Amino acid sequence: MEGLGDARFRIALHADGRGGFTEACKEFIRIPGTLPRGAVAEKIVKNLCARYDADELGNVPLGAQIMGSDAELLTLAAKHLGEDKNAPRVDLNCGCPASVVTGKGAGSSLLKDPKFVYDAVRAVARGVEGTNAIVTMKLRTGYDDSGLLRENLCAARDAGARFISLHARTRAQGYSGRANWDDIAFAKEVLGDDVPIIGNGDVTSPLRCAELLRVSNADGVGIGRGAVQDPLIFRRIAATVKRDVNGVWRVTEDAFEREFEVDFVVTFLRTFAEEVFKTENKLNSKRGSGVQERELEAFKVGKLKSIVKYLFAGNEALKPHIQEVMRIDPLKMSAEDALDTIERLVVREWVTPQHVLVDAFSARAQYQK
To answer: Where is the DUS-like FMN-binding domain (predicted)?
Structure first.
């Protein structure tokens, strides 16, 4: 969710303080493959971690996720996050499929060899020793295929991972096709009760959440794209996904009235916009410049469009209006007016999202081997 699931999105999702999730995922921090050693490296790593705030959402813990392959730098980052930034956990990203990442030996490229996985997780574990942070890890089922899934899971466990999030796609799949939840069930069989497994992939509704839990017996569920499609998804799951008397996961009737949903989505959009509009105070270009003002409006409108693209795609009544929003010209309409237009569409057209998969990521990005 890098680029969408950032601080702006998290704050907007938690606008009323009751987001419905038990953990607000992670702040993403990319550690370069090479840095000078010693004090210089330590300073650079601290700067990279500077934006992380464990208390960003108050009562919901925010973990830190780091991505890299250099063991010494991973240890430095984890140590700083655990000791100085009070991170409740430091998560190692072994799942990113982007070529710009895997080409540098990071992300899902670590899955090519279980030794890479062990060394990287162990480096993070060394960093958090003596702190209150735990080390966790997110991975995909494999690089080109899932042939090393067992070995990679065991390597993560043996290196000290306290729980593991598994996105049930390979790196080669990117975000295309269906997630193979049977691989999450396999992970549970491999690790048993030693290390909890968080199942991830294609959970875009309470129904899919219950299906994943039934199929995989996962200890928890991670949601990414589904939260952009439906900002209420965590609340829906908390309210409707329950075990029956036989211990089987079931979905009860949706608990929310349309008026409540519309109010929540409008608040979500306004809070997101407020966070985006704060960017005006952070620009380094000269004040009063006409070029600067145009660039600022384009930035604001672009961020609104990025959210609408996914929010509307998951809503049958709003889906036909995507192009209307995409055609908004920041030279002719201010970001504030664009937000008003989007809000009016939500108030008029919103319906509860149904069984919809958001596939826009796979449409905009191709991941080459």
So the answer is: 59-246
Q: Do 315 and 191 have their domain in common? A: no
Co-location of 216 and 285 in the same domain: no
Q: Are 26 and 52 in contact (CB under 8 A)?
A: no
Asked if 68 and 41 touch (Cβ cutoff 8 Å), the reply is: no
Is residue 364 situated within a structural domain? no
**CA distance linking residue 311 with residue 307, whole number of Å:** 6
Total domains in the chain come to 2
What values do phi and psi take at 3, rounded to 5?
Answer: 95, -30
Query: Are both 78 and 141 inside the same structural domain?
Result: yes
**pLDDT beneath 50, residues of the chain:** 20-24, 284-286, 360-369
- Helices and strands, number each (H, E), in the chain: 15, 9
* 96 is known as an active-site residue: yes
Q: What residue type is assigned to position 359 of the chain? A: D
Task: Please name the amino acid found at residue 345.
Answer: L
Q: Which pLDDT score is estimated for 259?
A: 94
Strand partners, 67: 30
What pLDDT digit, counting tens, does each position of 99-147 carry?
888 888 889 999 999 999 999 999 999 999 999 999 999 999 999 999 9
Catalytic residue among 25, 49, 94, 96: 96
Say which residues have a Cβ less than 8 Å from residue 101's Cβ, sequence separation at least 6. Answer: 30, 67, 107, 108, 109
- Residues facing 249 on adjacent strands: 243
